[in-house]
Amino acid sequence: MATWGSMFLLDSSSPVMEQLNFFHDHTLLVLMIITVLIGNSMLSLFFNKFSNRFLLMDQFIEIFWTIMPVLVLFAVALPSMRLLYLLDDPYKSSISVKVIGHQWYWSYEYPDFNNLEFDSYMIPTNELNMNEFRLLDVDNRLILPSYTNIRFIVSAMDVLHSWTIPSLGIKVDAVPGRLNQINTYMYRVGLYFGQCSEICGANHSFMPIVLESVSIKYFIAWMKNFMN
Fold first, then answer.
1. Is 23 exposed, middle or buried (0-12, 13-18, 19+ CB in 10 A)?
2. What is the pLDDT of residues 3-52, one digit of tens each?
3. Among residues of the chain, what percentage have pLDDT more than 90?
4. Is the pLDDT of residue 55 over 80?
5. Who wins on pLDDT, 131 or 191?
6. In the sheet that 116-120 helps form, which strands lie side by side, from edge to edge?
7. Beta strand pairing call for 105-110 and 116-120
8. CA separation (Å) from 5 to 2, 8, 9, 221?
9. What is the mean pLDDT of residues 116-134?
10. Using CA atoms, how far apart are residues 72 and 108, in angstroms rounded to an integer?
């Protein structure tokens, strides 16, 4: 089961990741059809003795194998361009979070809440509890409400990083001196794990990301408790 499970993407927890899953399946279907047709043509050429001089020399086949790849490219390109638009669509957000990459940890700021900020470090293996994940859990999780439009503003203080959460379809570069932006909308409460996806130095493997999606009521209570 583990082998078959690794062939698929993670379960989507945001509309964007859902569309990414659809596009992944759509592209695989196109590739499968092309592979089957080409394979069938090759096998038929190897194992039969029939020939058609008109098919080999006529202009029809020239037109056919020129137009068909163009149509296939359109079938892949149009959904791809739509998805790129959805990924970059700066729709109105209710909460903004600033994400800053450091060597080698993340820091988070909530500018809408009196500039609340904290650092998030990976928990060392010898300090893990029974219900925590090695190399994935952090001491301070990013707490955010579900069913809310959220904007992430991502940057870095030293070198290139990449803030990535696969379940939400988020992957944005953290570049020193530059602010990159991405939006998300979580429709599922739970924990979402990610890691830096840019080779940023010796401890690149030790700066995980943990986002905890909670109800809006719990988020307000957590925010009040944190600020007090």
1. middle
2. 344 456 777 888 888 888 889 889 999 999 999 988 988 888 778 777 66
3. 46
4. no
5. 191
6. 116-120, 105-110, 95-102, 149-156, 180-185
7. antiparallel
8. 5, 6, 8, 37
9. 89
10. 43
Give the C-alpha separation, 120 to 138, whole Å.
Answer: 6
Cα separation, 56 vs 101, in Å, equals 60
Amino acid at 124: P
Angle at 68 between CA 63 and CA 73, to 5 degrees: 135
Measured CA distances, 60 to 43, 54, 57 (Å): 22, 9, 9
pTM: 0.80
Contacts of 226 (CB under 8 A, 6+ apart): 116
Place of tokens 């979070």: 97
- pLDDT tens digits, one per residue of 170-215: 999 999 999 999 999 999 899 999 999 989 888 888 999 999 999 9
Q: What is the mean pLDDT of residues 72-79?
A: 91
Q: 225 is written with which tokens? A: 């408790």
Q: What one-letter code names the amino acid at 128?
A: L
